[in-house]
Amino acid sequence: MTIGFVGAGTMAGAIVRGITGAGVVPGGDVLLYDVATDAARRLADDVGATVARSAEEVVRGSDVVVLAVKPQVLPAVLTDLAGAVTERRPVLVSIAAGITLAALEEHLGGADVPVVRVMPNVNAMIGAGMAAVSGNAAASAADVARVVEMFDAVGGTVEIAEKDFATYTAIAGSSPAFVFTFVDALARGAVRGGMPKALATRIAAQAVLGSARMVLERAEAGVSPADLVDMVCSPGGTTIAGIVEMEEAGFSPAVVRGVQAVIDRDRELGG
Ligand SMILES: NC(=O)C1=CN([C@@H]2O[C@H](COP(=O)(O)OP(=O)(O)OC[C@H]3O[C@@H](n4cnc5c(N)ncnc54)[C@H](OP(=O)(O)O)[C@@H]3O)[C@@H](O)[C@H]2O)C=CC1
Ligand SMILES: O=C(O)[C@@H]1CCC=N1
Fold it and tell me: Is the predicted ipTM greater than 0.95, yes or no?
């Protein structure tokens, strides 16, 4: 199986390194094209992949083609590739925010080809990603399974209804940036308290990692995140003082509004 990438930036780099590192395909079976030729060359050299001269060459030489360009350029890229896609019929994978399966099919001129929409996240870079997957009517169970195998190699996957993609993007595609912001804010608080930033960042990140594991592991016993908050808040103690201050500043509503803003922007990008 040859896997091609159109766009060789942040996400393509994470996926290519993950799938070659996990042995889904050897680097020699990966074909890359990017208008930024240096980006494609660096990534190809890292994993032993081949740089194609055009996106069309990627399509003609690949069984699976991952479209890893920004949503704003994807429609034009697809329109240019429609002829080659119709002839070669690879499994097309789009990781672009906002662009629906129906829009992808339309940009391909209505071609009846297998298309799988995926929303990965940046944590794929360290094999800890979380990707949503949804196939169009032309994608067989085997096509979708192939794509799931690729993204499982860089973390986990979940098959969801396409209508939930915008929401998923908020809580798993974009949310790493929210969490990074939270860790940075915790560390700034520690700096204010007199601790060096690098040490504080390491401590805060470890606390977030452990807390995420608590949520996942205790959920199996029916314990919710709110129950866990109560577990930490000693009556008259330090944590409840911090929680009250943060909620007065609008912490939870700010997060809910952030999630809604992602959902709205995702729908805007989809036109
Ligand atoms: N970053 C993230 O955390 C996530 C991103 N995504 C999605 O992944 C996609 C890629 O994002 P990301 O990797 O961050 O973006 P990057 O900008 O890092 O990578 C995109 C690459 O595509 C290149 N490019 C632009 N136009 C073309 C073209 N016509 N043909 C080939 N290559 C082209 C860009 O070059 P140049 O810079 O010169 O324009 C760039 O090198 C987006 O659609 C985004 O929605 C999904 C989930 C998470
Ligand atoms: O910010 C973005 O649009 C992309 C999609 C999800 C994460 N990054």
Answer: yes
